[in-house]
Amino acid sequence: MSTPYTDQNETGEAQTLISHLVELRVCLLRSLYSVIILFFLLFYFSNDLYHAIATPLLERLPPGSSMIATEVASPFLAPFKLTFFVALYLAMPYILYQAWRFVAPGLYATEKRFMLPLIITSVLLFYTGTAFAFFVVFPLIFAFFTAIAPEGVMVMTDINHYLSFILTIFFAFGLSFEIPVATFLLIWSGFITVRELREKRPYIIVAAFVIGMLLTPPDVMSQILLAVPIWLLFELGLVLSEKFIPGGDTREDSLPGGNAGS
């Protein structure tokens, strides 16, 4: 038979769980509403958005060539999907802020000191990666693809296939530019140290050029344009880790919270 004290504890735990679920629901709804509001604000300009995102290809198509829609609903669905992704893209800082509000009460003071700047930095780096893809990589990719078309082949890209391609590239470059944050978190968590990462620098440089080879056309300049930023961002992660993580060269001292529990 349970004691009143036990019943009181169970009731308190149940209320805490319910309050967490309510808070999670509020954060999720706010995030969803932000995406929906941005979507409806942007939907009127959906065709303009698609034209803007297609500009790197349109400017490099041969004379007389154009993009095409091979499905009946593509002229509507392609701009529609793009508008949704743009709304999600623009709402991401607010969505991450809601995630921060939900998890912040359960973090230690040292974790709070690092996590909010890391979230802000992650968003900025992701945006930088997508901008780099749009303004630097896309012109090179599309110039290469249109230049190597066999004689007699008219380059006419389907708008749905183009959208899928650019979203994949955006995501790949956005993630690639998160390397400083990933490096910082690996060292901060104690999974690896600054010294160990420095020892693995040659392998990381090779990996950067492999990633550049996989994500860009098979020409040296495009590979370098991705591989060199990846390498420099890795070095930036090491510098930030040395500056902001005390004892980053030792596993024990780099754990979250340090020696606060001793």
Task: Please describe what this structure looks like.
The chain is mainly alpha-helical. It has a domain at 7-177. Helices cover 75% and strands 0% of the residues. It is built from 9 helices and no strands. Helix 2 packs across helix 3 and helix 3 packs antiparallel against helix 4 (109-147). The longest helix has 40 residues, at 4-43. It is flat. The two termini are 39 Å apart.
What are the SSEs and their pairings?
Blueprint: H1 4-43, H2 46-58, H3 74-103, H4 109-147, H5 159-176, H6 179-188, H7 194-199, H8 201-215, H9 220-244
Task: Explain briefly what this protein structure is.
The chain is mainly alpha-helical and 262 residues long. Helices cover 75% and strands 0% of the residues.
Query: How many angstroms does the end-to-end distance come to?
Result: 39 Å
Count of helical regions:
9
Mean pLDDT: 82
Q: Give the DSSP E fraction (strand runs of 2 or more residues).
A: under 5%
Largest beta sheet, briefly? none
Could you spell the SSE succession in H and E letters? HHHHHHHHH
Indicate the radius of gyration in whole angstroms. Answer: 24 Å
Structural class of the helices, strands and pairings? mainly alpha
Unreliable residue runs: 253-262
Morphology call: flat
- Relative helix content: over 70%
How many β strands by DSSP?
Answer: 0
